[in-house]
Every structure is written in structure tokens, then in C-alpha cells.
Amino acid sequence: MTVPGIEHVAVVGAGTMGNGIAQVCATSGYRTTLIDVNAEAIERAKKTIAQSVTKLHSKGKISDEARDHALKGIQTSTDLSAAADADLVIEAATENKALKLQIFADLDRLCHANTILATNTSSISITEIAAATKRPQHVIGAHFMNPVPLMALVEIIRGYNTNHATLSTILEFTQSLGKTPVEAADYPGFISNRILCPMINEAIYCVMEGVGTPEAVDTVMRLGMNHPMGPLTLADFVGLDVVLAVMDVLYEGLGDPKYRACPLLRKMVAAGHLGKKSGRGFYVYNE
Questions:
Q1: 6: phi > 0 → left, psi -120 to 50 → alpha, else beta; which?
Q2: Is the backbone peptide bond immediately before 147 cis, with ω within 30 degrees of 0?
Q3: Which end of the chain is more exposed for a tag (fewer CB within 10 A), N or C?
Q4: Structural domains in the chain plus CATH codes
Q5: Is 75 helix (H, G, I), strand (E, B) or coil?
Q6: What positions carry a catalytic annotation?
Q7: Which helix H or strand E contains 101, and what residues bound it?
Q8: In this structure, are residues 197 and 243 in contact, taking their beta carbons and an 8 Å threshold?
Q9: Does pLDDT of 2 surpass 90?
Q10: pLDDT digits (tens, 9 = 90+) for 137-178
């Protein structure tokens, strides 16, 4: 069941999060457009979506109609103007504040006045992003979890000027995707990354200081704390550059030295060892 007033959803950014968001929007019956300036990223996203929906369909998780809608119904574009007639735009670009502010300023200019502009940011202030537009009442945070097709949670974050109608619509919309929305205040890192990334950062300190190997740290957290995966495996999966970006936002926004990024994390990112997506992080991955 789709939400009245939302027929066309545009997703900006065809990376891991963007293609996952586009997939669940399409399989839930929304007309979906996936936008990225990089044509190669769009082609990779289409292959990823095809593999994902085929697997979910084979397991009986989605219907024939939902599979076909995702395989054939997602429109793509390298031009942001493809979002012009969308009822909802979800930005899922790189976790870079300057880039997001520019995207929102452009979307504000392109989209009709009542279009809701949502951001999938994992840590950046919704209020600050909204201030780049002339419609802050229609800007909101919708932080999906990775991998989007499998994870139930979506953090919903109101900016200072976000109105109740926008909040209600996004709560209903995320529920229509089969997700569980949870409201969080507009503080750096929100709830999820305020807790998660400092834990990962501390695990990296343990490696840097010789307290334990990556394998030892992950094994302790899996077998001793019953985590489904260790924090360093998770860091590789999320991307060490993303973890570093969040830690920098926490440190800058909260001003507490406990959020200082581990020097080893900063060094690995500088070396291009970003985790699974680069083939090497705390572990080595085959293509």
C-alpha cells in the first residue's frame, strides 16, 4: 500500500545505500528514478538490484510483481533534473557536507514547492542541510540501514523547521516500505552512529595499541557480546572512510575528545584501505 500523495520517488546517489533505497521503493510499488552523475555507478546499481531482487524472489520474500517492477520499472538518469516532478526525493550521496548542501540547493530550485526532500545522511545536521533550501519545513532525515533491502530500521530525524505534515508523511512512507521508523533528535550521529562509530573507533584503538589483533577483537565481540559480526568486520563493510567522516562530525559537533578519530583509522583511509569496497581494510577481500 503506497502513501497517498507520493507516487514518484527519486533517489539521488546510486551507491550501496542509494541502490538499496531505490530497490525497496520500486518493490513497494512506487514509481522510482535513480540518479547519479556517474553512468558507471548506475550500471553497477542496476546489476546489484537485479541480483538482490532475484534472490529475494527465489526465497519467496517478494512477489512476481514486485520483482518485475524493480527489474524493469526503475528509471535512471545522470541529470538531477530527472527529480523535478518527484513527490519525494531521497538523497543518498557521499557523506560529504558540502556536496549534500549543493545537492539540496539544486533540488530546491528544480522540484515543485511541495516536494519533500529527505537525506539519508548518517550524521550531518538536518537543520543545516535544510538551511540550504527555501523549504526547510519540507526537509527531513531518513537514515536507512545497510543493506537496505534486509534491514528493518529507518532513523527519522526532524530538522529545527521540519513541520508535522512532513514528519507524518515520512513515517507513513517508511512503514509502507515494510520498515520500522524510529525518531531521533537532530544531534551529531543521531542515535545509531552516536553509539556505533565510537565503539568501532575504540576497537581500532585496541588494534593500534596492540591489545588484540583484528581477529581477536572481532571474536570477543561476536562470542562474548553476541554481536552478529565484529566491529572491525562491520567497519570494513560500512567503509572506513564513512566511519572516519562520522567520527569527525561527532568530534566537531560535540567537542568532546572522546570522539577523536583513531590515528590508525585516519592512516588507513589516507592509504586507500577503505574496507570491502576497496578490497582491503582490516581484512583482505577478493573481488
A1: beta
A2: yes
A3: C
A4: 8-184 (3.40.50.720), 192-278 (1.10.1040.50)
A5: strand
A6: 122, 143, 155, 193
A7: helix 97-110
A8: yes
A9: no
A10: 999 999 999 899 999 999 999 999 999 999 999 999 999 999
